[in-house]
Amino acid sequence: MTDTSDARLQRLLGTPALADVRQRLRRHFERIDPGAHTGSLRLAGLDPAAHSALCQLTGRPSRAARSMILDITDLDARLRASGLAASLRDALERLEGPIVARTHLRRALQARWSTLATTADGDARLRAWLRTPVALTLLKRLGREPDRAAHLLADATAVLRRLPAAGLTRSQLAAETLGDAHALDAGRPVATLVLAVWRLHEVDHATVDDHERVRDVWARAGVLVNELARPVLFLNLPWVAGITGGCVPGEPAWLSLRQLLRSPPAWRVDGCRIFVCENPNVVAIAADRLGAACAPLVCTDGMPAAAQRTLLDQLAAGGARLHYHGDYDWAGIGIGNLVMRRWNATPWRFGAADYLLAVGRCSAARRHDLDAATVDASWDPELGRAMRAHGLAIAEEAVVETLVDDLRAVAAGASAV
């Protein structure tokens, strides 16, 4: 194209009167693939100057109108015949720069993401997770673009191949697999991917709940994070081997997450009835009153954390029959829902009738008002209704005498509580 043709193109299509029209035409070409046949395009809302300029460009007689159907095929031919441009698209690019086919690019990018999600090599658990509805959204957020996401998937695969571990610390796992001891810290992209995959892998164990913290999920995979925090408290648990020091019959004992994962005790619990309470005071009272003559007892210490969950996992896997009691408040019901669901526990004097009995027996000094937020008990719908009706919370310690009697009776061989 010569300078003369450029000047003519500027006079025909590059005038200020057609500035808005040029932008509308550029957006039109951005929405279609390069080389796609357009045919015609209706332009509405034209001002008189723009309509007049378009009439001159297309060879139409000028008349008062606010719209025009632009025959792009015809205009392409006119521009080529005049030597001004190869096409309307070419003319627009000569005047104001390249037109990016954004829709085409978006489709191409989406195809790359889809290919990445469906052809990823590596761990079968990762491939299964990539088939879930939320996987691609999370992968896009973490990776931002396909090449980086591919690297994240490769790193996640390397980590998953080491899982489940046997009490390996998270920093050591990160250093050995990714060369960076902090690569699996909370919030890091690879850690987020690995945890998402592991949650899906463990869904048959009902591990996904609102209270599950990152440390607990890592523990399910045999990885230690703050492994000495919140050890689990218990009394008189039967074991074959694996616990050394500090476990004396009749005395409360603690095990850390580190001990439970690195050297899992061999629990002798098949068919054994094990009682689970919410509050450490119940364990202390049971030890004081009964000592070695107390049925096996484990404390969740509120919402169970990693050590508590790991011990209950081990006991349930060993064939233990778990029975749970907690506080008669909404937090206690929430904990009960988790314990009943995840470890198939049965309620231990933790139903509506037991609550009503406690309301009648407990003095005003041993109970307080429930807060407004309510939780339904999955094992007994009537319990939540009774608690809402009375509006009273009763701590587990307020009914501890009954619980101690049960623990004594079961240890002595009674068949029912």
Describe the structure.
The chain has 417 residues and is of the alpha/beta class. The chain folds into 3 domains: 3-100, no CATH class; 118-224; 232-411, Dna Topoisomerase Vi A Subunit, Chain: A, domain 2 (3-Layer(aba) Sandwich). Helices cover 50% and strands 11% of the residues. It has 19 helices and 14 strands. The chain has helices spanning 3-13, 19-30, 48-58, 72-82, 88-96, 102-119, 124-130, 135-143, 146-160, 170-178, 189-201, 214-220, 257-262, 280-290, 306-317, 330-343, 352-361, 381-390, 400-411, and strands at 40-43, 68-71, 168-169, 223-224, 232-235, 239-241, 253-255, 266-267, 273-277, 297-299, 321-324, 346-347, 367-369, 392-394. The strands form 5 sheets. A 6-stranded mixed β-sheet has the order 7-5-10-9-11-12, with helices on both faces. Helix 14 links the parallel strand 9 and strand 10. Helix 1 (3-13) crosses helix 5 (88-96), helix 9 packs across helix 11 and helix 17 (352-361) runs parallel beside helix 18. It starts with a helix and ends in a 6-residue tail after the last helix.
Percent helix among the residues? Answer: 40-55%
| Biggest beta sheet attributes | 6 strands, mixed
Strand order of the largest sheet: 7-5-10-9-11-12
> What would you report as the Rg, rounded to the nearest angstrom?
35 Å
- Unreliable sequence segments: 203-211
The name CATH uses for the topology of the largest domain is Dna Topoisomerase Vi A Subunit, Chain: A, domain 2
Shape verdict: elongated
